[in-house]
Design goal:
The chain is α+β, with helices and mostly antiparallel strands. A 5-stranded antiparallel beta sheet has the order 5-8-7-6-9. The longest helix is centred in the first third of the chain and has 36 residues. The protein is elongated and about 140 Å long. The termini are far apart.
Length: 269
C-alpha cells in the first residue's frame, strides 16, 4: 500500500477516535445538571432568614408587611440575621430603619432600632423634620387615646379682648394640621408586653414638625392653651386627595421618600 494512503487512513482513524472521546465527554456533561439538581438542598430544611419585602429607606417605621421569612443557604447565614424560630416577630413591628435595606435583602439587627433604644426618636424623624414636645392635660390629650403613629391637629385657645367693659372672649382655632405623633411621655410604642395597645394618660406629647412649625408651636404655647384633636385615617386620605386635585401640593415621584415627607409637610401647613 502506498505511503500516502497509509497516512490518510491513520489520520482518519485519529479523527474518529477524537470524535468518539468528544461525544462521550458531551454526553457526560449533559447528565451533570440533573445530578446537581438532585443534590440541591430541600428549602424546607434550609434556615429561613428575615428579608425585606420592599425597599426600606432610612427612617421607615417597620410594619408587619415590610418583611417575611425566606429560605437561605446555610453557609451564607450571618450572626446578625433574624432566623425563623429564634426571633420574636412581635418586637420587630414599630422598629425604625437605621440603614437602608433593599427589597429582598436580609434584615440585620444593626439595620433596625427598637423602640426605647438610644437614637430611636432621631431615626424616626424624616429628613429636615424636627421633634417638638407639647405639654397637655387629660382633657386636651383625648383622655389618653392618642398613640404614637397617630395623626393629630393642634388647636390654640386664647383670651381676646371683646371691647368695652365686658370680660375677654375665649377664641379657639386650629393652627396646624395632620401632624404625626412620635411619642407620648417616654412611650414610642403603643403596645404593652402582651402585644396589645395600652390606654393610659400622659402629660407630654412629642410630634414631628418642620422648623417653621416648631416656631409657631413655641409662640402658641405662650399665648394660650394647646389641645390635640385626633384625626381619622379616612380624613387624612381624603384631605390628601383634595390637596393633590386642587394643585395645593405636588405629588412626589415614585420611590422618593424625601419628596413624600415634603408633600406631607406642605399638607400640614
Amino acid at each position: 500500500m502506498e505511503p500516502k494512503k497509509i497516512a490518510l487512513l491513520a489520520g482518519a482513524l485519529i479523527i474518529a477516535v477524537a470524535a468518539a472521546f468528544l461525544a462521550r465527554s458531551m454526553f457526560m456533561n449533559g447528565g451533570s445538571p440533573e445530578a446537581s439538581a438532585n443534590a440541591m438542598p430541600n428549602p424546607a430544611e434550609m434556615p429561613h432568614v428575615l428579608v425585606a419585602t420592599k425597599s426600606l429607606p432610612v427612617g421607615t417605621i417597620v410594619g408587619p408587611d415590610a418583611y417575611r421569612y425566606q429560605p437561605w443557604p446555610k453557609e451564607l447565614v450571618e450572626e446578625a440575621y433574624y432566623i425563623q424560630g429564634k426571633t420574636d416577630d412581635g418586637k420587630l413591628a414599630g422598629s425604625v430603619v437605621r440603614t437602608a435595606i433593599a427589597a429582598g435583602q436580609p434584615v440585620t439587627s444593626g439595620s433596625l432600632i427598637q423602640p426605647g433604644d438610644r437614637g430611636f426618636l432621631a431615626a424616626a424623624l424624616g429628613p429636615g423634620m424636627r421633634a417638638v414636645t407639647v405639654p397637655v392635660s387629660v382633657q386636651s390629650s383625648v383622655a389618653g387615646f392618642i398613640f404614637p403613629g397617630d395623626r393629630v391637629d393642634l388647636m390654640l385657645t386664647q383670651s381676646v379682648a371683646g371691647g368695652g367693659d365686658g370680660p375677654p372672649l375665649k377664641v379657639s382655632e386650629t393652627i396646624l394640621r395632620n401632624l404625626r405623633v412620635l411619642a407620648t411621655d417616654q412611650r414610642t410604642n403603643a403596645l404593652g408586653e402582651d402585644g396589645k395597645p395600652v390606654v393610659q394618660t400622659f402629660s407630654n406629647v412629642t410630634i414631628e414638625v418642620t422648623p417653621r412649625m416648631a416656631e409657631r408651636i413655641q409662640v402658641a404655647q405662650t399665648i394660650g392653651a394647646i389641645t390635640l384633636s385626633l384625626r381619622s385615617i379616612a380624613d387624612n386620605n381624603q384631605e390628601l386627595e383634595e390637596a393633590l386635585a386642587s394643585g395645593e401640593v405636588q405629588a412626589p415621584k415614585a420611590g422618593d421618600p424625601n419628596a413624600e415627607k415634603t408633600m406631607l409637610a406642605a399638607l400640614a401647613s
